[in-house]
Amino acid sequence: MEPDIQNLIERLGENNIPAVFVRNRREALEEVMSLIPEGSVVGFGDSLTLRQIGVVDALEEGSYTFLNPWSPGISVEENVKRKKRALTSDVFVTGTNALTLDGKIVNVDGHGNRVAAMLFGPSKVIIVIGINKIVSDLEAALERIRNYAAPLNVKRHPGFDPMPPCGETGICSDCTSPWRICNKTVIIERQYDNNKYKPVITVVIVDENLGI
Ligand code: SF4
After folding, report:
1. Does 181 contact ligand 1 (Cβ within 6 A)?
2. How many angstroms does the Cα of residue 152 sit away from the middle of ligand 1?
3. CB 3.0 to 4.6 Å from 140: which of 120, 135, 170, 177, for a disulfide?
4. What pLDDT does residue 1 have?
């Protein structure tokens, strides 16, 4: 599918979700970092896309308080502490599971920290998505997540023991695994833009295949 990006950006705009389109991961990195003031407390929803475009390295190396729950060597307690603190961060950066052509941002999460911070708390939320995750509608988004993205995401987490069944089969069996990564489904349809509350989320669409 060749998505009509201009039309998608207009649909997002109608939903009060500002969006920018960049040509590649280098431009994406520049765009994201331009939106994060130095000195910010920055929360992070685990995202292969953000790692691929270099945002995670830039935040680790720059003048930020970067709340990376997956920094090597930290304890489970510290992991949870950083996830909680991210809920009131200055800026929360994350990827997303799917974006529909009518401007809905669709996410499925295991622990819930990523979708919670997308919904409310941080002063600014930056969501980065490659064009491979743009889908026609909500049904296609959920199909993509359950039967494509989730099995691959399960596989890339070697710590899941036992591994949810989709990691073996490649398809969703609506499991009850203790490591089920599809516990919380969130659909962001619109956001406020009124005389009291301004939009918090910005979407950066990258003209590359990124993430899973
Ligand atoms: S519900 Fe279980 S089997 Fe289905 S995609 Fe999620 S983790 Fe995999």
Report:
1. yes
2. 11
3. 135
4. 54
